[in-house]
Design brief:
The protein is α+β, with helices and mostly antiparallel strands. It has 2 domains: 349 residues, Thiolase/Chalcone synthase (Peroxisomal Thiolase, Chain A, domain 1), CATH 3.40.47.10; 76 residues, no CATH class. Helix content is 39%, strand content 21%. The chain has 15 helices and 15 strands. It has an 8-stranded mixed beta sheet, with helices on both faces. A 3-stranded mixed beta sheet has the order 3-2-13. The protein has a two-stranded antiparallel sheet with strand order 9-10. A hairpin with a 5-residue loop joins strand 14 and strand 15. It is globular and about 70 Å long. It starts with a strand and ends with a strand. The protein binds coenzyme A. The site of coenzyme A has 20 residues, from helix 2, helix 6 and helix 7. Coenzyme A (COA) binds next to helix 2, helix 6 and helix 7.
Length: 460
């Protein structure tokens, strides 16, 4: 069977940075530790006024193509995943292809282009589409370019404002990949939910607390579906578990829930039982596995008692050395980049994978042959979990990452500049804001054309 997976990854951050504890918290009169400790964020990335979802996507894809020595003819498919699109008809991938044609000989006229939408899970779905296209043998030897790109902006003073971010992740999906091979094992947790949506509006309507509950519920459902294919999961099965990371504090909750699930009925639970007792079992409280509505009606059903017991057990589990060690090795390394950039929506889970791979390289981890469990989530809502195996050659690919350099070079905004740049990207406001950085060797937005299309130029 042909091995298909991710052959190359490039990350492109917005060129501006908002320091959350240093600049945002004082302006909001809030404790900086709410951001650093509570949400787990140090900074957000923002696009300068000449940057947007197209420039970030095209800049990431351009670097990827240059580095891999690819010509347009080598690419049979360009899919962009975004929840920040500015056009209901013309897909962002056509703009990206137009940009790339400015700097490449040849064109993408025979590449299939599209745009994928399902909140933050869309890029994972686009990777899936590319995988299926190759496995079906319809790619004619060509690779697929999948790009996640978003300006994750919230309305000013929305609680989500602290979790904003902007960036793109370009991934090349190909046969005999050099980073990870994607497995066919996959699970879904999907339901019609109203937690985060943008009904014909730029900034989201968010029920933040509910969105966190839905994330966890759908992720748990996806894990159970995944296990129905792969068999039971165990914490030692995976070198890293990159999750969708709207902010690292969310992943802290998902990690704990996942660990509790994975160790149930294993020797790990037996060992921990001496310290914190065994996990509460639904049956002991008369609660069925299908949630409260499906539980029996006898007087023995104690849903509240079960939930309280679970909460207490989770608090105790969180304090054990076993959990700390697992979290520190398996989850923490996935959060390094996210802490500095905020939420990149569709790109976030792919940033988490990149962060883990970078950590492995820096720490000399022998990762080839080891597995990753990737947990994606999109509001609305759907979680998807699948396994990947890191392949030989991954170090060379990861060594080419320049994420650290890009992050270090970002312009550090004052709060007043942040307000201006937020307005500059607000579609409702007609604000002309001078850029604070100078584009160099990259695509830049140059203005609007006669039909309201956006125009771009490569600036040397
Ligand atoms: N020191 C340490 N921790 C602090 C703190 C302080 N001074 N102040 C607050 N915190 C902690 C809180 O206890 C909370 O952690 P917990 O959930 O583990 O208890 C965390 O920081 C966030 O604080 P909270 O008061 O809940 O923040 P908020 O009401 O401003 O909203 C979100 C947080 C996530 C709901 C909001 O940012 C949001 O709506 N985000 C967008 C939606 C989203 O990303 N959803 C995720 C699923 S996709």
């Amino acid at each position: 069977m042909t091995s298909v997976g991710i052959d190359a990854i490039e990350i492109r951050t917005g060129s501006l940075k908002l320091d959350l504890p240093g600049t945002f918290a004082p302006a909001k009169d809030e404790d900086p530790e709410k951001y650093t400790k509570g949400l787990g964020l140090n900074a957000s990335s923002f696009p300068d006024s000449y940057e947007d979802i197209v420039t970030m996507a095209a800049n990431a894809a351009h670097r990827l193509m240059e580095r891999k020595g690819l010509r347009p003819n080598d690419v049979g498919r360009i899919d962009v995943a975004t929840e920040s699109a500015f056009d209901n008809s013309k897909p962002v991938s056509t703009y990206v292809a137009g940009c790339l044609e400015q700097v490449n000989d040849g064109d993408f006229h025979h590449a299939n282009k599209g745009e994928r939408k399902f909140a933050c899970v869309a890029a994972t779905q686009a990777v899936d589409d590319a995988y299926n296209w190759i496995r079906a043998g319809r790619n004619r030897g060509r690779a697929a370019l999948v790009i996640a790109t978003d300006t994750a902006l919230y309305a000013r003073d929305d609680p989500g404002e602290a979790t904003q971010g902007a960036g793109a992740v370009a991934m090349l999906i190909d046969e005999d990949p050099s980073v990870v091979e994607i497995s066919t094992e996959q699970g879904y947790g999907s339901a019609d939910e109203t937690d985060f949506l943008k009904p014909q509006q730029q900034f989201p309507s968010v029920d933040g607390k509910r969105s966190m509950q839905v994330y966890l519920a759908r992720m748990r459902e996806a894990l159970e579906d995944f296990e129905s294919v792969s068999g039971d999961t165990h914490p030692d099965d995976y070198a890293y578990i990159p999750f969708h990371t709207p902010f690292p504090g969310m992943v802290r909750k998902a990690g704990l829930l996942g660990y509790r699930h994975m160790i149930r009925d294993t020797p790990v639970e037996d060992e921990l039982a001496e310290e914190i007792g065994r996990q509460p079992r639904r049956e002991a409280f008369g609660v069925s596995g299908q949630g409260p509505e499906a539980s029996g009606t006898s007087s023995h059903v104690d849903e509240a008692g079960y939930e309280e017991a679970v909460r207490e057990h989770m608090d105790a589990l969180k304090g054990t050395d076993a959990y700390h060690e697992w979290y520190g090795n398996t989850i923490e390394p996935t959060l390094t980049i996210s802490r500095e950039v905020g939420n990149w929506y569709t790109g976030s889970v792919h940033v988490a994978r990149a962060s883990a791979l970078q950590h492995a390289l820096e720490n000399g981890v022998d990762l080839a042959g080891q597995r990753l469990l990737v947990g994606s989530y999109g509001s609305g809502a759907q979680a998807e979990i699948h396994a990947e195996t890191v392949v030989d050659g991954w170090e060379e690919e990861v060594r080419a990452f320049d994420a650290d350099e890009q992050l270090a070079e970002r312009y550090d905004l004052s709060f007043e500049e942040y307000e201006e740049i937020h307005d500059a990207h607000n579609h409702e406001k007609d604000t002309d804001v001078d850029p604070v950085t100078v584009p160099e060797g990259e695509f830049a937005f140059t203005g609007w054309g006669r039909m309201g299309e956006r125009e771009y130029e490569y600036v040397n």
